[in-house]
Amino acid sequence: MNKWKEILLEDACDILTCGVASTPKYVDEKEGVPFLSAQNVKDGQINLEKYNYVSKDFHEHLTKKNKPRKGDILYSRVGAKYGEAAIVDFDFEFSVYVSLTLIRPKSEIFNNEFFKYYLRSPIVKQKAKKSIKSSGVPNLNVKDVRGFNIPIPPLEEQQTIVAKLDQAFAAIDQAKANIEKNIANAKELFQSKLNQIFSQNGDGWVEKTLEKTFKLKSGDGLTSKMMIQDGEYPVYGGNNIAGYYDKFNFEHGVIVGRVGALCGNARFINEKVWITDNAFKLTEFKYEFDFKFLSYLLNFKNLRSYARQAAQPVISNSSLKDVILNFPNSIETQQQIVNQLDQLQEQTNLLVTKYQQKLANLEELKKSILEKAFKGELSTAAIEKV
């Protein structure tokens, strides 16, 4: 293990400061300057898909002493994704919010890529985690960041380390892309089977609007204060299990989330549960249904797409009443379809779980490589194994 000299981050930088602490007044794109925050820094890159704008005068005020420029490092210090770092790789002007730390390493002793990789390493992540004292939204104090140590290998050695890390991370990122493609393919296969099944019509199949097939009835109001921690029955709201209660109002059938991020999601229920008014119960059926079949059919119809986009997405009887449903009139045929879909769903879930574990393993490999790099233990042999 190499024994490199270490210095404090505040001594390693020409600039190490956070952005403006108060939320500014935002302006239109044509009138303003980009205003970046922690949400723009992810996986070692700056994501410019979405950001706000501040006035040019306000931007000049913010950057009078420390104007960000190409080559600087943005380090997130607030929120669940604190501890992310990325190098500014563009030339346009911008300001930063308090959730970001602007860092400009001393160019005479540091390679910026080396500095970025170090900030993303498990060594610094652990220091950051220990420095956060609040129990609410994680908030890493800039004073603590300035007190972190950083090793100073010779510049030539820093460049060698960066080259090795670039090579390893490129291989890992390619492997991740391949795995994510495999996950997408597995899900697309299941979706294509749904398309094949539920696009049928003709003999034995019925085509009706939702309102002429069954009724949607809201559950019964139940506040979180009324729920019981050790209650016997799960409480379902718009987004899944919300708690437990000592009574039930539903025990076999299909429910559909009415409010929230998962509104429109259909769920087959085969136990005693309490359904709140944030979900619909399906009632007054005009046709005979296997309820699991019906849940597959409704999820295929993507009822979420009919939601009204308010502060929280909401679906209603009126928004769903004209949705066209195709289904076999035979309960036996429905059950045969359920058996097919259950088998395919199980195979898909197993594949996705397997691939997700591989992704998790690659993330752990990244952490391991970064840790070895800054302990002087990163060998060419280790890189070639990636």
Short description:
The protein has 386 residues and is α+β, with helices and mostly antiparallel strands.
Determine the oligomeric state from the structure.
Answer: single chain
CATH superfamily of the largest domain: DNA methylase specificity domains
Number of strands: 22
Q: How many helices does DSSP assign?
A: 10
Spatial ordering of strands, largest sheet: 2-10-7-8
Question: Your description of this structure?
Answer:
It is a single chain. Helices cover 37% and strands 22% of the residues. The protein is built from ten helices and 22 strands. Strands 2-10-7-8 form a four-stranded antiparallel sheet. Strand 7 (73-76) and strand 8 form a beta hairpin. It is elongated. It starts with 5 loop residues before the first strand and ends with a helix. The mean pLDDT is 90.
Descriptive key words:
37% helix; 4-stranded antiparallel β-sheet; 386 residues; 10 helices; Adenine-n6-DNA-methyltransferase TaqI, Chain A, domain 2; Helix Hairpins; alpha+beta
Spell out the blueprint of helices and strands.
Layout: E1 6-8, H1 9-12, E2 13-18, E3 32-36, E4 41-42, E5 45-46, E6 52-55, H2 56-62, E7 73-76, E8 85-87, E9 95-96, E10 100-105, H3 112-120, H4 122-131, H5 142-146, E11 149-151, H6 155-198, E12 205-209, E13 215-218, E14 233-236, E15 241-245, E16 253-257, E17 266-269, E18 274-275, E19 279-283, H7 291-300, E20 308-309, E21 313-314, H8 317-320, E22 324-328, H9 331-373, H10 380-384
Parallel strand pairs: 3-9, 14-18
Antiparallel strand pairs: 1-11, 2-10, 3-6, 4-5, 7-8, 7-10, 12-22, 13-19, 14-15, 16-17, 16-19, 20-21
Helix pairs in contact: 6-9
